Amino acid sequence: MECRPGCAACCIAVSISSPIPGMPEGKPAGIRCIQLTPDNKCKIFGKPERPRVCTSLMPSKEMCGNSSGHAMDYLAELEKLTEPVQI
Length: 87
Ligand code: SF4
Ligand code: SF4
Description:
By secondary structure, the protein is an all-alpha fold. 32% of the residues lie in helices and 0% in strands. The site of one iron/sulfur cluster has 10 residues, from loops.
């Protein structure tokens, strides 16, 4: 499946331990990525400084569901079960 435009659940719910431009320590779970625009687009999409974890995370029916609310709940649950992603 394709990433749902404007969803951004991955860019909010997930913790990222690798540096992001403007967030050198990465970001905690539940915090908006600084590179996310107000209309939920990635400002550094396609650029080399975009963290590898962002490019490697693939949309799936199970994770994304039919709404960003579903994805936020799914990813928040996943965060409770796993260690922060190390890249
Ligand atoms: S949860 Fe799925 S649809 Fe939402 S931003 Fe992530 S990949 Fe895209
Ligand atoms: S760098 Fe872009 S894709 Fe990665 S979390 Fe931030 S806004 Fe989302």
